[in-house]
Amino acid sequence: MSDRPDYAAFPDARGHFGAFGGRFVSETLMAALEDLEQTYRALRDDPAFWAEFDQDLAQYVGRPSPLYLAERWSRELGGAQVFFKREDLNHTGSHKVNNTIGQALLAKRMGKRRIIAETGAGQHGVATATVAARLGLECQVYMGAEDVARQKLNVYRMHLLGAEVIPVHAGSATLKDAMNEAMRDWVTNVDRTFYIIGTVAGPHPYPMMVRDFQRVIGREARAQHLAQTGKLPDALVACVGGGSNAIGLFHPFLDDDGVAMYGVEAGGHGIDTGRHAAPIAAGRPGVLHGNRTFLMETDDGQIIETHSVSAGLDYPGVGPEHAWLSSVGRAQYVNITDDEALAAFRELTLVEGIMPALESSHAVAYAKKLAPTLSPEQSIIVNLSGRGDKDIHTVAAIDGIEF
Amino acid sequence: MSRIAETFKNLAAQGRKALIPFVTAGDPSPAVTVPLMHAMVEAGVDLIELGVPFSDPMADGPVIQLACERALAAGTSLSVVFDIVREFRTRNATTPVVLMGYLNPVEAMGYEAFAERAAAAGVDGVLLVDLPPEESEPVADIFRSHGVDQVFLIAPTTTEARMARIAAAGSGFLYYVSLKGVTGAATLDTEEVRAKVETIRKHAQLPIGVGFGIKDAESARAVSRVADAVVVGSALVQRVADNASQPDNIPTQVAQVLSEMRAAMDESD
Questions:
Q1: Which residues of A14-26 are buried (b: 16+ CB within 10 A; e: fewer)?
Q2: Which residues pair with A116 in a beta bridge?
C-alpha cells in the first residue's frame, strides 16, 4: 500500500488541504459561502453542468489549446524536449477564462445579476468582463491603482467590454488590496452579487472550485502528451502567484509518481533582497483572504508589500493546495527573478515567435534552467498561461521606448 | 465569574444597557490610548473594545482601515497592545477589555502565548473577525483555560441553525452586526434589529450587543431599547482621525460623543 495521499480526496469537507485552506471570513459571508458550496457540490455531480461548461470551452474559448513542441528552443537548450501548453491561445489570451466561464455558469444558476472580481495583471478582469458581457451581467472589477497604471491596455479592454474598473489606492495598491476591496463589496452586496475569485485562493469552496475548472489544462496536456509521444512527461513547470494555472496543469498528474512538478514563484529582485513575491520560498503559514496558507508577513503577522515585475504574481500569498503540495513534497517550488523572467520573455519571442506573459515568462525561465539537466529522451511541459501583449508597455518602458 | 459576565449582571440588576466603545489601539499613537480609555470610562462606558491593528482589515471600512494604518505606522504591535491594557489596569480593575481584530497577528504570536499574555495583561475577551466557530475549535480550549472569553459575531445573513452553534461556542457576549457591509456603512433599521435580536435570544443565553451603524445619541438610544449592549466604533474612530494632529484633544472629543450616547440610553421612555 502506498503512503501517497489520495489527492482527489482533498480538500476535506471543511475545505482543508492538510493544515491549509479552510474558511476564515467574517460571519456576514458565511451564509453566501455555504450557499455557493451547496450549489457547486450539487452541480459537481451533474453531467449537464459539465456538458455546458465543456461546450463553452470548445466553442467560445477555443479549446483544446495546443500542446506545442518547441523544437528549435529545445535544440538550443540541449536537453529535454520542451512542450508548451498554449493557454495563451485561449479567447481573451490566458487560462483565466476557463475559470470565469465556470463561475459565470454558477452565477447564472444562482440567479445573481451582478458580478465582481479582483484583478492584478488584468487577465482575470478581462476574462470576467468578457463573460459578463456575454451573459448581460453588471460587472465591476477591483484593481490596485499601481496595476491600473502598469496594465493600461487591459484596463481599456475592460472598459470596452462594459465593465467598471475601480482603482484601489489602499495599502500597496496591488492585487492583495484589490482582493480586500472586492471582499468588502461582497460583504455589502452579498444578496445579489457573485464574486468571481480569479485564483485558487480565498475561502472554501473557491480553491477547490477554481481548481476543478482549471483542471482542463492538465487533462488535455496529459492526453496530448501521451498521443504525441506515447508516454507521460518527466516534468511540469508553471508560474505561481495564487497558482490557478499551475494547479490546473498539476492536478490531473498528481497520481503519476514519475512526473516532477515545479511551481515558479516571483523572485523579484532576489529572495535575499526581501523585494519579491515568493511566499513558499520565504514566507510562513498564516491566515489571509479567508484561507490558511504561506504568506509573506512580518514577525508581528502584518502582511508585507510584495514586488514582482509581473502584476499577476505580485501577491503575498499562494493557493492553499500549493502550500499543501509543498509541505508533503509532491511539488517543488522554485523562484525566478524579474531579470531572468524578462530575459526569457525576449528569448522565447525571438526563438519561437511566441511572446509569453511576464507571469508565464517565469515558468519559461525555469524551464531554461531545468531542460539542460535532462536528456533529449525526456520532456517537460511548460504552461504558457497567458500571452505577453498586455506586458509590452512594461517591457518597452525598460527599453526606454515610449509609444 | 469573568469580568464581562460580572459587568452584564450588574447592569441587568440596575435595568441598564451596556455602552461599548471601539477604538483602534495605538491610533494615532500608543501614548494616546490609555488616557483615551480612562476618559471613555469616565464618560460612562461599561466595556472597551480595543482594535488590534492589521495591515489588511477586509471586514472594515475606510475609517478603520486608516486607523489601522496610523497605528501600525506608530509601531503598534500586539505586544504594544498588551502594554496598553496592562497600563490601563494599573488604574482600572473593573472595566472589561475585549481585543478585536484579525487572526493573523494572533497566529504569528502563537495561540498559547497570545492567550497567556492577554490574560496576564488584563484582557477579558477576544473577538477575531475572521475566525468563525468552525475554525476556532482547536483554540477554544486554549482561550478557555486562560479565562479569555471568545466573542463571536452574528450577521443578518446568519441562519438560525448557525445562531445556535455560534451561541454555544461563544462566551462573554454575542455581537450582532446589524448591517450587511463593512464598518461605518449606511444606517440601520431598528425594527429589523429588534426582530433579529429576538430570534437570537431564542438560541442564546448570552447578552447580545448590537453594532454597526450607530452614529449618534439617537441611534444609540434606539438600539439600547432592543439589545443588552450598544457598540459604537466608526463614529469614535472618525473623531480620533479628525484630531490626529492634536492628539491631546482626542480623549475629550471622544468622551463627549459617548457622554451624549450614555445620557440618551439612560433616559426613561
A1: ebbbbebbbbbbb
A2: A140, A195
Yes or no, beta carbons of B105 and A302 under 8 Å apart: yes
Picking from A142, A184, A195 by the largest number of B CB atoms within 10 A of its own CB, the best residue to mutate is A184
- Please check the confidence at residue A1 and state whether its pLDDT lies above 50: no
Which of B108, B157, B159 shows the shortest C-beta gap to A190?
Answer: B157
pLDDT digit string (tens) for B69-91?
999 999 999 999 999 999 999 99
* Edge-to-edge strand list for the sheet holding A20-24: A16-17, A20-24, A290-295, A284-288
- Taking an 8 Å cut-off on Cβ atoms, the answer to whether A302 and B159 are in contact is no
The pLDDT score that the predictor gives to residue A352 is 98
Sheet holding A235-239, edge to edge: A67-69, A81-86, A379-384, A235-239, A260-268, A332-337
Kindly report the backbone phi and psi dihedral angles of residue B142, in degrees, each rounded to the nearest multiple of 5, phi listed first.
-65, -50
- pTM, entire model: 0.95
R_g of chain B, CA atoms, integer Å:
17
Return the SS3 of A269: coil
Q: Which helix (H) or strand (E) holds A142?
A: strand A138-144
User: Could you write out the DSSP letters of every residue in A293-347?
Assistant: EEE-B-TTSPBPPP--SSGGG--S---HHHHHHHHTTSSEEEEEEHHHHHHHHHH
Which tens digits make up the pLDDT trace of A237-288? 999 999 999 999 999 999 999 999 999 999 999 999 999 999 999 999 999 9
Contact residues for B237 (Cβ-Cβ < 8 A; gap 6+): B22, B23, B24, B27, B63, B64, B67, B184
**Which residues from B are below 8 Å from A301, CB to CB?**
54, 78, 104-109
- ipTM value > 0.90: yes
